[in-house]
Amino acid sequence: MGMDEWKKRLVEWRRHLHQNPELSFEEVETTSYIIEQVKSLPGVTVQSGKDQLGLDTGVLVTVGSGSSPIIGLRADIDALPIQEKTDLVYQSSYKGIMHACGHDGHTAMLLGAVYLLSSLFEQGQLPGTVKCLFQPAEETEDHYGKTGAQYMLEKEAIKDVEAFYALHIDPELPLGEAKIKPGIAMANVDTFEVVISGTGGHGAYPEQSIDPIWLTSIILPFFYSLPSRSVSATDPAVLSVCQLLGGTSTNVIPSEVTIRGTMRTYSGEARKKLTNELRDGLTSIKAYKGTYELKIHHGEPALFNDQKKTEVLASALSLVDPTCKIHSVPYGMGGEDFSHILREIPGAMMFLGACESTREKTSLHQPTFCFDERVLELGSKTLVKAALLSMKRGGDQIDT
């Protein structure tokens, strides 16, 4: 396949995936499509299925003879429960499901990388092995509280990988710019649910009830003050209340109110502090004769980019596009389940600018999400270059 055809295929892959999105743990057709694109390529072996990867969906494509060094490249393949509002000719074919986080682009980039790596292998120019993980279920946990990355790690199909790299599309950053930072770059993700209980009663006689809505109004200011009053201003921390559920009538005081939200932190210390302060502060509800039940779920850990692997990935991008402007800044308070992999295997994730300047401004997880498809070539080549640089010198010293 020539380079012109390869570039054309990148766009075709992305648009097919965009038209046919599947939610977390349901990426059956996406998995089949990926396998179909790569199964006959030279030097490629394919693993999939629950026995090999821990889930029915997802694909691990290995390029090479199996010899060391073994480098990992990762793309996420799932979509979101969002109704698309882009009016693109290739917009989602499924009502209420959309690739609104760029995973269609990530998957296309990694497919492109598989093709380039296979060509290098065929020419005898691949000095090692690359494991390309098309990972399912990044966006959502299952009923066990686990995401796709955790299942992939448990099956140990990637345990021999020495360094792992991933890219993420950034629709707010211009094409030709990128973000990559060593250390913590994305947040710990914790969720909470508080059920505040009273006795309920008639709306005309509130003095006869213990009103959980009133108790909620008292506790909400405490929630919103927690990050700034329990964690240092130099240590990022956010608490957001995202759901309030209670009441069924205009004249009935309910017996309970449910509050749900999320806590985001960078450090382990801030994570522990915010959790403990939330638990302690809720006891004030008892002073007003109410009761409560608190559930906290600790989700993805903070994304930690290894110093040396960050240098490798940044150098790879600079070699592919010397004019690209790289910002050494955190990526924000979002979560990313690639962090589970980076806790076990040193590596790094980079955010690639792909703002579609001809359309309205958008962001991740929005129904208007879109990106400049020229980023596909840049990202695919950067992944391959990062793998080759790591093979050449183990990632310890990189000439830029």
Automatic annotation (TrEMBL):
Pfam families: M20_dimer, Peptidase_M20. SUPFAM superfamilies: Bacterial exopeptidase dimerisation domain, Zn-dependent exopeptidases. Residues 188-282 form the Peptidase M20 dimerisation domain. GO terms for molecular function: hydrolase activity; metal ion binding. Mn(2+) binds at residues 101, 103, 139, 168, 365. InterPro entries: Amidohydrolase, Bact_exopeptidase_dim_dom, Peptidase_M20, Peptidase_M20_dimer. Its cofactor is Mn(2+). The Mn(2+) ion enhances activity. Keywords: Hydrolase, Manganese, Metal-binding. The keyword Nucleotide-binding does not apply. NCBIfam families: amidohydrolases. PANTHER family: METALLOPEPTIDASE, PUTATIVE (AFU_ORTHOLOGUE AFUA_6G09600)-RELATED, PEPTIDASE M20 FAMILY MEMBER. This is N-acyl-L-amino acid amidohydrolase.
